[in-house]
Amino acid sequence: MQAQMILVAGPYRSGTNDDPALIARNVQAMTEASLQLFRRGHLPVMGEWYALPLIEHAGSSGIGDPVFNEIFHPISRRLVAKCDGCLRIGGPSAGADEMVALARQHGKAVYFALDEIPWLTPIQRPRNIHALYHAHVYFGPKTVEQARALCLEAGQRFGVAVGRVHEKLVGPHPHWSCQLAFGTEIFEPFIAWLDENRNGLDVFVHGLTGDDLEDHTTHAYWLGNSTPLNLEMFRRG
Known about the structure:
The protein is α/β, with parallel strands linked by helices. The protein is built from 8 helices and 9 strands. The strands form 2 sheets. The protein has a 5-stranded antiparallel β-sheet with strand order 6-7-5-8-9, covered by helices on one side. Helix 2 packs antiparallel against helix 3 and helix 3 packs parallel to helix 4. The protein is elongated, with a radius of gyration of 21 Å.
C-alpha cells in the first residue's frame, strides 16, 4: 500500500449550538486524528484547514453567514474528490456523512477507525537514551492472566517496579494495562527479555523526561503493534 491523502471528516458545528469552545473541541479531535494519520505515513487533510482562512479573508461576520456557507462545505466537496480516502470520526454530522457519501461516489476508500488504516512508517523500537522508563503491558480479558504472570516475573527477575494490573482503561492507554518502571542500567537485558517473552502482547515503552506529552509522543516506543493513545488529557494541562 502506498501513502494515501486522507480527508478527516467529523462534526464541526453539529451538537455545539455554535459554542466556540465546543467547536474548538471538535476541530481538536480531527486534528489529533490527522496527526495519527501523519505518523502512520499518510498525508492527512481537513476541509477546515482550507476553508477557515478563506472564510476569514473573504470577510465573514460569523459562522453560518452567506460568506461562510459559500466556502465551508463546497471546499470540502472539492477536496474529497482529490483525496485517496476519507476517515469518518466522531458523532452525528450531516456534513461529515456527506463527505463519506461523496468519497464512495468517487470510488475512494472510506475508513471509520484509525486501526483500519495500515502503518507505512516503521514502528519505533525502544532506545536506551533516557534515565528512566515506563513499560505498559497491554492485554484484554482473554490475556489478563498471561500479562499478570509476565509482569510478576519481570519484577522477580529484574527488580522493576510493578504497578497494578488494571482491568479497565486508565490514563492515556487504549487497552487494559500494567505499568513496569525501570532505569537505563537494566534497559538492554530487560527490553530484550520482555520482547522475547511477551508472546503476542503489545507493550508501550516511553521515556520519563518530565513532559508527559513529549514522553507519550516523541519518546514513545513499541514492542509489537502500536495503538493510538488518548493524549487529550496531556493537552488540557
